[in-house]
Structures are given as C-alpha cells and as structure tokens.
Write a structure and sequence with these properties.
Radius of gyration: 31 Å
Distance between the termini: 43 Å
Structural class: alpha/beta
Oligomer: single chain
Shape: elongated
Largest sheet: 7 strands, mixed
CATH superfamily of the largest domain: Ribosomal Protein L25, Chain P
Number of domains: 4
CATH architecture of the largest domain: Beta Barrel
Bound molecules: adenosine-5'-triphosphate, magnesium ion
C-alpha cells in the first residue's frame, strides 16, 4: 500500500521529519490572538496540523498571548473557528499565558545561572550598545551587565512587584553582545521580560506587571509542551540560534543535538500580491481612519476616510474569514497551498493564481444554475398552453456532479439586458429584433419582434415568438418569470486600482485615492431559477463552526456564486466566488 505522495512525504517537510524521526510527533500552530488570520496562515495551519496528521502525531493550537495590550476575545474565537473550518481539530488548546508562573521561575533560574541581568538603559542607549543605527559599530556592555546576580534577582523581583514603570527596567539575556565574532543580532542580549503597566490580561487579569517576550516565551513553551518539530516562517531563521541558546541554558536542550527538546525549522511565507494582509492596514480599511494633512501654509487639516469594506470578512479581503464568506471551499484552499508546495523559499502569488485553482475545484464539484443579473422580461407571444412545461435538467451537463433539477418554462422569461441589442449586426449572435437566440435546455429558439422602453430610454420589455426549426448561433441563460426567485448578487473585483497596494501611502491616507470604485458591483434585482431553493433546503445557511456547507453553484455564462451567510429565505444574497474564466486583462 504505497501512501499517496503528499507535501509531507517528500521534499522539505520529509527532510524536517527525518532530522528528528520520532514516533510521537508533536507540533503546534501558535498564532498571536491580535487579529484575524489571513491566507498566509492557511499555509502555517496546513503545515503544522498536516504534519502531525501525516505522522499520526498531535498538534496543539497555542494562543501566543503574551501581549495584553493587543488581544481581544473575538480573535480567539475566530482563530479556532478557522482551524476547524480548514478541517483540523487541535489536540489541545493552550495559551502561552498558561505558563506565566513557570516562565517567571525559569527567568529567575536564568538569572541565578548568570544568564540574564536587569538593565535600565534607554532604548537609544541599547541601540548604541548593539552597534548603533546600522548595527555595524563596535558593541559594548553597559554597567548593568556585570552587576551581581543577587542584585539582578532582587531588581527583577522589584520589576514584578511594581517598583518600575514601563521602560525603566527590563530583563536582558546575557548572550554574546560583547563577542565581536558574534554577527547575529539575535545573540546581542535580547530582552526577556518587560514591564507593561496597562496590564489587564484576558486570562491572568491584574496578576502580572511583567510579561515575557516572544524570544523568551516561544522556545520554552515549545519545550514545556513537548513539541518535537517547531515549524515557523523564515523570518525566524535568525532566531533559531537564540531559541537553542536559551533552552540549552535551562537544560531543556543538548547543544548540537536533537536528542532532547524541540527542533525549530523555518519554511517560506505565503504572500499574496495585489492585496493587503497587514493587520494594521486592514483595520484602516475596516474602520476608516482620520488623518492630519499639513498644508503648504502651515495649517493642518483633518481628513476623515470612511471604511472601504464592510468588515474583516468582506469578500474583497484575503483574511480567511473573508475567503470563507466569499465561498472559497476550505478543501480548495488547502489543495492550493499543497500545490504551491513547502520549501524554505518565500512563495509570492497573485490573486489570479488562487482564483484559477479555486475555479478548477468548483468546476468539478458544484451544480449549475441559471441566474440573470440584470433582467429584462421577454414575452413569447405564441407560447401555447401545451408549451408550458417543467424541463428536467442535470446539475452538470458533463455528469461529473450527480443530480438534476426541474426548470419551469412559461410564456414570460427573463433574459439578461446584456444579451439583447436594439440593433442587430452580422457579428452579433444573441437576441435582437428579427434575430433568434437559443434558450438553454428549451426545444425552440426565440426571435425578438419588438421592444418597449421607459421614459429614460431603458428597455422594459421584449416581445418575441418561437423560432421553431431555426438553428441559433448561441444559447443564453434565462429564468421563468412566474417562478423566479429574486436575489441580490454581488460581484467582486480587486479593492485597489494598483497591483501593489502595499506601496501606497499608508501614513497620510493616500491609499484611499487608489480604491477601485468597482471593487464591488451589486445587482439588486437579479433573478434565479426556482431550483436554488432546493439547493438551499438541502444545505444549512449557516456555515459557522466546522461545517463548510455553503450553497455554491456555477451560474451559467456568469460566474461561480455562493449564498451569503447573512441571507434569509426571503432575502437571498449571492457572493461571486470567482469568475468563469481568467480575466483577459491579466
Ligand atoms: P502577520 O504579521 O502577517 O499578521 P504574524 O506572524 O504576526 O503574521 P502570528 O499570529 O504570529 O502572525 O502567526 C502564527 C503563525 O503563522 C506563525 O508561525 C507565523 O510564522 C505563521 N505565518 C504568519 N504569516 C504567514 C504567512 N504569510 N505565510 C505562512 N505562515 C505565516
Ligand atoms: Mg507573530
Ligand atoms: Mg505580526
């Protein structure tokens, strides 16, 4: 039974396993609960949870909650939700803060081993000690580095007990700051603990005034949880040396060996171009922002920029809640991440690559429907009583998706405004006066005979007749007027006009001038065949939690859509997932 080849059974991930081929693999996904996850995190989730699953091990979801200033409950809930949506179940859910007592003890232990000292230097002074602004100058120790262990210990306790304000004292690891041969800034006496005064922590309340840094916390939490393979992104490559150093100081790892303790390895991030992933910037899009503008005459002006999207889950964003809401199936997203592969190189993609992968997935998995975005009524004047019928149509003409639906045909049908022209021409193949067009699945084509307009010149109704026996050049989608379901359909385009929105002016609000006015196009009066209600009845409208059962379909000649989660039975909203074909402009 050869196992199917997967990203875990070859390449980078296989090598990582072989470097520490243990029986009981333990990994972890350690998000900071200070924002919503984005598409890049889907890779980190797939790597960490997938690795454990592949090796029949376990994976923790660990909230890295060491910064009480930035964390909010809604992020915790959403992160777990998304992990489950992607099809993974954490073996245990833990919090870095679970270990605050232990971390504090270990900090004291480190001090006692002369591996850390309390320092009172300013940020500027520390930067000078670390070689100045370009980190190239001579490095030197401050007076605190050589203070007696006992003194550091009592000062550290004083930090804990409230003697110092933020910035007045912090605990520094005694690494290799003064070794001129040590070229890695991660070894230049990094901070281990700092005072945070605004200190209501969501789990430990007011208990602590000192909080451990990432560099102090992460490796120790990995070790305490018995993590075997600690995989993170390559910006932590430089940190591997301090990760190992600290664990070795605390006898949690053996130098130059993977016998004991966790092993950190780094893979390349997944970045998406043409969009914004930074939490801070997305927040501006979600909440809008107020900026101060300096005029030439020295006066300042305040400019208020309104929100550019409806929320963190607005389908134009690339947060995972947004991609979910837009209707991208979790499975398709995971397949995409696997297709890209995992190495230590950065993967930078443009949105169209994701879209083409999603399209391939949907093509094979969702039923077809007839949707008319901008309807005009067509009255088939010679439609006889016996023409009234219910046509049985398969969900997929190619048969890849099982099932069929009943499509009603009556005397009046809607077609899309874009499929009619007042004046015919030779190279035009859809409906026009005296020209016939085919209606999908209907035995006879129709030929337009006349049309009427309202006071603004908009066509309100077309009269047509059956064009039996004629061979139309083209078939179009249509919806029976009597049984049509009214829906609102939203189509999405990129949020910005530029392809590199990260280069916009994010300081003084210049980004707002580059917003694409057509990033969302809403069709308030769209209609869809009555079969949609059968699709909805067999699904649940609410995809929260683990389920991924949004109603998705291919609207013929239009796009792939899903039923938005905030729809009600009598007020259905559709979100475009992706277009049918790649946009030619790209
Ligand atoms: P960002 O700065 O983009 O918001 P982050 O690194 O602050 O991301 P964390 O919550 O710390 O976010 O991330 C949790 C895990 O996800 C980390 O191990 C991190 O390396 C990984 N991760 C974050 N961004 C990406 C990305 N673009 N591609 C792959 N993995 C990522
Ligand atoms: Mg982080
Ligand atoms: Mg971050």
């Amino acid at each position: 039974n050869a196992e199917p080849v997967s990203i875990f059974s070859e390449g980078w991930l296989q090598r990582v396993y072989k470097e520490k081929a243990v029986k009981e693999v333990r990994s972890r996904f350690p998000p900071e609960p200070n924002g919503f996850l984005h598409i890049g995190h889907a890779k980190a989730i797939a790597v960490n949870f997938g690795f454990a699953r592949h090796h029949k091990g376990v994976c923790y979801l660990r909230y890295d909650d060491t910064n009480p200033e930035k964390e909010e409950e809604k992020y915790f809930t959403s992160i777990l939700d998304i992990v489950k949506w992607l099809g993974f179940e954490p073996w245990k859910i833990t919090y870095s803060s679970d270990n605050f007592d232990k971390l504090y003890e270990l900090a004291e232990e480190l001090i006692k081993k002369d591996g850390a000292y309390v320092c009172h230097c300013s940020r500027e002074e520390v930067n000078m000690q670390r070689g100045g602004p370009d980190n190239r100058g001579a490095r030197y120790a401050c007076e605190h580095r050589s203070r007696p262990v006992e003194e550091s210990l009592s000062e550290f306790r004083a930090m804990r007990d409230g003697k110092y304000k933020a910035g007045e004292a912090y605990l520094r690891m005694k690494q290799s700051l003064t070794d001129p041969k040590e070229g890695n800034p991660q070894m230049w006496d990094l901070p281990a603990y700092r005072v945070i005064e605004k200190n209501h922590h969501h789990r430990t309340g007011e208990k602590w005034r000192v909080y451990p840094t990432y560099d102090f916390t992460h490796c120790i939490c990995d070790a305490l949880e018995g993590i075997t393979h600690s995989m993170c992104t390559t910006e932590f490559q430089q940190s591997r040396i301090s990760y190992d150093w600290l664990l070795e100081q605390l006898d949690m790892k053996v130098p130059k060996s993977e016998e004991k303790g966790p092993m950190q390895r780094e893979f390349g991030r997944l970045n998406v171009g043409g969009t914004i992933l930074s939490k801070r910037r997305i927040l501006m899009l979600v909440e809008g922002t107020t900026v101060e503008k300096k005029n030439a005459d020295g006066t300042t002006e305040t400019k208020t920029i309104p929100p550019a999207v409806r929320g963190w889950d607005d389908p134009r964003l690339f947060t995972l809640v947004a991609l979910r809401r837009r209707g991208i199936p979790a499975k398709a997203l995971l397949n995409f991440v696997e297709e890209l592969g995992v190495t230590d190189a950065l993967t930078e993609i443009q949105p169209y690559r994701l879209e083409s992968s999603i399209r391939k997935h949907l093509e094979r998995t969702v039923p077809r429907q007839m949707l008319v975005l901008d309807p005009i009524k067509v009255v088939i004047e010679d439609f006889a009583a016996e023409d009234d019928q219910e046509i049985t149509v398969p969900y997929d003409p190619k048969g890849a998706i099982p099932g069929e639906r009943k499509v009603k045909l009556g005397k009046e049908v809607y077609i899309d405004r874009a499929d009619f022209r007042e004046e015919d021409s030779a190279e035009y193949f859809r409906l026009a006066p005296n020209k016939a067009v085919g209606l999908y699945n209907v035995a006879f084509p129709i030929r337009a005979t006349s049309f009427s307009k309202d006071a603004n010149g908009n066509i309100t109704e077309i009269k047509a007749v059956k064009a039996e026996g004629e061979k139309p050049k083209t078939y179009i989608q249509w919806v029976d007027v009597a049984t049509a379901i009214s829906v609102t359909a939203r189509q999405y385009n990129s949020l910005f006009k530029t392809e590199s929105p990260n280069t916009l002016d994010w300081k003084t609000g210049g980004w707002a001038d580059d917003l694409n006015p057509e990033s969302e196009i809403i069709f308030e009066h769209a209609v869809i065949e009555k079969g949609l209600s059968d699709l909805i009845d067999t699904h649940s409208l609410n995809p929260s939690g683990a389920s991924d059962d949004l109603v998705r379909f291919q609207a013929l000649r239009t796009a792939y859509f899903c039923v938005d989660v905030e729809s009600a039975k009598d007020k259905i909203v559709l979100n475009q997932i992706v277009s049918l074909r790649e946009d030619k402009a790209k």
